[in-house]
Backbone:
């Protein structure tokens, strides 16, 4: 038989590989969910860019950028914990739709303030506070939907494709927002965010899961693997405590949760602090900021396509090595002066972020029981609050020692924590 790759056997193997990469998109409900994800991620990434840009324009302060992240932490923590209970009790799609509708309302409000030239810094703090709470409430439902749509066999593929969709929007939206900020003004970016949030609500109306139960006339609900009459349903506090006890009783799960929060604390603030770094250190404007975020997303997209085809093997070790490599590259970026070096480093940073997010999420979903999935994913969603706390800390550090040293310190800490988890959390290395 010929070794020519154009021969039928080689072509069939290529087709099978592509089918495996995009397997989950054969499910109609996942396709609608994927469309909604594109809209949500587009709105979220646009919001990160435009809000950070506006804050630095209004204040010129890294501490103000950090404070913007901090104000969302308190409502985010409480909302996320309660959001896990909601995810295990109510239809997840409806929870996400309501949350996205509220996000659209706040985006529209900020857009109108900009349009009438009434926006002040405290308006952005209020919107960040409210949106932190809203996102915390819907995040556990959002993260725990995928297994109910595609099942365990397609979980890693669907999660990676979902992350790929996020990175596609990161590739396109930052550049588009940077152009819009420079040409048409920030209010139009906020109006676009409003529109994309509405699109996500409409797309989710077409999706469904086999496990989702209708509200309304249902006489009973399933909680914690048991069936309870609605009148005898346990309290939210009891359900929350049950979820925590479940996590404590399963070392693999709490190990994943702790490592995810720690790695997010040291890696994610990079994205939120980039608007100030671009303007003050690199001397660039919104166009450069958008281009750099798009380059990050290009690296992330390449990583997620690899993960979508990845087999369930050595995933714990890959997470640890990926975080260590990400830390080294962050240190290099902090002191890079030349564009020929900066942009390749951004590609690697994007790939590292995507690797951590995708595999950490997949591993958390793999080892949790369905009855506790929403409550466990609410704890996974705590990484967003960790990112906001990290942003606050890095913002203060940037104000004191300068952004380059703050970024370098963040990368060095990431390397050290990766080494610590590798040595002391040895079961994590063996996770498949």
Residues:
């Amino acid at each position: 038989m010929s070794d020519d790759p154009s021969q039928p056997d080689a072509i069939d193997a290529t087709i099978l590989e592509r089918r495996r990469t995009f397997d989950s998109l054969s499910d109609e409900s996942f396709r609608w969910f994927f469309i909604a994800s594109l809209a949500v991620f587009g709105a979220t990434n646009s919001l990160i860019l435009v809000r950070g840009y506006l804050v630095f324009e209004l204040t010129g302060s890294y501490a103000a950028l950090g404070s913007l992240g901090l104000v969302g932490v308190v409502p985010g923590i409480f909302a996320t914990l309660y959001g896990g209970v909601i995810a295990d009790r109510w239809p997840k799609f409806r929870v996400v739709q309501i949350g996205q509708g509220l996000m659209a309302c706040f985006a529209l409000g900020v857009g109108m303030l900009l349009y009438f030239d009434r926006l002040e810094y405290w308006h952005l703090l209020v919107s960040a506070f409210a949106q932190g709470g809203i996102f915390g409430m819907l995040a556990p439902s959002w993260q725990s939907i995928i297994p109910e749509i595609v099942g365990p066999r397609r979980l890693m593929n669907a999660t990676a494709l979902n992350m790929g969709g996020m990175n596609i929007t990161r590739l396109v939206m930052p550049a588009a927002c940077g152009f819009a900020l420079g040409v048409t003004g920030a209010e139009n970016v906020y109006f676009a965010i409003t529109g994309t949030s509405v699109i996500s609500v409409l797309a989710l109306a077409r999706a469904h899961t086999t496990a989702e139960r209708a509200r309304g006339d249902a006489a009973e609900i399933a909680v914690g693997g048991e069936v309870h009459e609605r009148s005898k349903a346990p309290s939210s506090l009891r359900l929350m405590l049950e979820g925590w006890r479940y996590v404590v009783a399963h070392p693999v799960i709490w190990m994943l949760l702790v490592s995810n929060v720690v790695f997010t604390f040291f890696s994610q603030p990079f994205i939120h602090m980039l608007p100030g770094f671009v303007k003050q250190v690199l001397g660039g404007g919104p166009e450069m900021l958008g281009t750099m975020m798009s380059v990050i997303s290009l690296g992330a997209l390449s990583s997620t396509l690899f993960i979508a085809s990845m087999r369930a093997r050595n995933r714990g070790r890959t997470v640890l090595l990926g975080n260590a490599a990400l830390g080294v590259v962050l240190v290099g970026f902090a002191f890079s002066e030349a564009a020929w070096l900066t942009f390749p480093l951004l590609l690697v940073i994007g790939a590292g972020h995507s690797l951590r997010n995708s595999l950490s999420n997949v591993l958390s979903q793999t080892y949790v029981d369905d009855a506790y999935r929403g409550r466990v994913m609410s704890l996974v969603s705590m990484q967003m609050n960790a990112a906001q706390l990290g942003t606050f800390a890095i913002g203060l550090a940037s104000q004191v020692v300068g952004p380059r040293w703050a970024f370098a310190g963040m990368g060095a800490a990431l390397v050290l924590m990766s080494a610590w988890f590798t040595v002391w959390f040895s079961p994590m290395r063996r996770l498949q």
